[in-house]
């Protein structure tokens, strides 16, 4: 049996989301949710039926993969959203309504696109949080090569310049860092 038999061995989404501050009744979006919805389904449990979870991806195939599971599990608080967070207005969610947005393992996309930061600001509530998670920037047995990774210091520098404030930095698993930002100091 492999030590990494599931995604939870790398990042256990539910405790990470709780540590980032996700609670009941919140509206949450996972940008780049992927075909498995690794953060989407745990978030659905945390926010409860009164909350709302948006699974956002630019790949329609990823959303199609999630659609069946959403229906089978009768997750009425999950909405699948085809969108491009690298474009302002590219994600069809009402502005200023999200309590939290997460970006997991695709942080370099955020850092290369100033429009992505603007889109996040457009969608977050004034007290909203941005959760970033990515691979540590060192050689590990698994994951992308170190030159394709970003450090938490790089993200802090860019997001601070864009008007965000780092509230919390923690380990999201054995190979990942996590940061929680807000727009309020």
Describe it for me?
This protein is α/β, with parallel strands linked by helices and 185 residues long. It has six helices and seven strands. It has a seven-stranded mixed sheet with strand order 3-2-1-4-5-7-6, sandwiched between helices. The N and C termini lie far apart (46 Å). The model is unreliable at 1-6 (pLDDT under 50).
* CATH fold annotation: Rossmann fold
Helix-strand category = alpha/beta
**What is the overall number of helices?**
6
Quickly count the domains. 1
Q: Residue-averaged pLDDT, rounded? A: 93
Which value, in Å, is the CA radius of gyration?
15 Å
CATH class category label: Alpha Beta
What proportion of the residues is helical, as a percent range? Answer: 25-40%
State the end-to-end distance.
46 Å
Strand order of the largest sheet: 3-2-1-4-5-7-6
Number of strands: 7
Q: CATH architecture, please?
A: 3-Layer(aba) Sandwich
- Described by its quaternary structure, the protein is single chain
Main beta sheet strand tally, sense and closure: 7 strands, mixed
Query: What amount of the residues lies in strands?
Result: 25-35%
């Amino acid at each position: 049996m492999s030590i990494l038999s599931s995604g939870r061995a790398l990042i256990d989404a539910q405790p990470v989301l709780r540590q980032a501050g996700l609670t009941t009744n919140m509206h949450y979006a996972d940008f780049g949710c992927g075909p498995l919805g690794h953060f989407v389904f745990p978030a659905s449990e945390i926010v409860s039926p009164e909350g709302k979870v948006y699974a956002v991806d630019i790949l329609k195939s990823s959303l199609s993969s999630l659609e069946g599971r959403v229906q089978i599990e009768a997750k009425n608080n999950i909405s699948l959203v085809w969108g491009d967070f690298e474009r302002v207005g590219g994600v069809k969610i009402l502005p200023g309504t999200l309590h939290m947005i997460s970006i997991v393992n695709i942080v370099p996309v955020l850092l290369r696109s100033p429009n992505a930061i603007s889109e996040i600001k457009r969608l977050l509530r004034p007290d909203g949080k941005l959760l970033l998670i990515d691979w540590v920037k060192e050689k590990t047995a698994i994951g992308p090569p170190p030159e394709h990774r970003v450090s938490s210091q790089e993200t802090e520098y860019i997001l601070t310049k864009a008007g965000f404030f780092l509230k919390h930095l923690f380990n999201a698993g054995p190979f990942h860092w996590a940061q929680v930002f807000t727009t309020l100091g």
